What we know:
Blueprint: H1 3-6, H2 37-42, E1 46-48, E2 51-53, E3 68-71, E4 81-84, E5 89-93, E6 98-103, E7 105-106, H3 108-112, E8 115-124, H4 132-137, H5 139-142, E9 160-166, E10 169-176, E11 193-194, H6 197-206, E12 211-215
Parallel strand pairs: 4-12, 10-11
Antiparallel strand pairs: 1-2, 3-6, 4-5, 5-6, 7-11, 8-9, 8-12, 9-10
Amino acid sequence: MTLTRLVPFALIALAACAPEPPASNPQPAPQAPQLSARVKAIYSAMEDDGRTIPAVKPEYLSEEKARQEVDYWTDEPPGTIVVDPWARKLYLVQKNNRALRYTVAVGEDGRGFSGKGRIPYQRDWPSWTPTQSMIKEDPELYGPVKDGLEGGLDNPLGARALYIHRGNKDTLYRIHGTMDDSSIGKATSAGCIRLFNQDIIDLADRVRSGTHVVVLTRAESGKGTVPPGQPLPPVPYSPEDFPQTTGDNT
Length: 250
């Protein structure tokens, strides 16, 4: 059994988040856009803890998707992380109505959690362990890694993971890296909040223990991106944002 087979790709109900499996008939990659030297440098290959993180392929990048400082109006203090799952953006609040903006991928779990929390700790190249229920449901897939999958380039949590708690309780909500660069900027059927490995390393370097996190609801999507008093921008539509229905809806 290959390592790819061993890495779980479904939403982890009682553990950290992981990406969904690649499509059985993947679509051809889009043509690479023209990118500035700045963006190419940000997402070039990099060394981290003895590992070489590959460069992000140009077809998965754009000037808009790249991390950048933007205008951002909020009452949250500098250093706060604001996650907008519906717009697939994460903001690290700065002074003077500014924020660092990162593009993220959002899974079902990322759209089902909202409110405030804090980050008591983070992990570099975090390990991942399947739950007992996952092992019971699919022993062939999860049994070989029942004792955990060590951190690395093939681990679904990527280069860093920020663990979000509410009070003294782990929310099981994670902000982490990814092994699937093609997912960034999309709403997916599984997972929490994930960033390019280059971006999660940058974000983690700026985060300290106790950092506050605010996750916006669908009604709040776009909050902070326009000055106070202005209408919020329309929420981007994605079919994955809505539950599937069956039966006659007429």
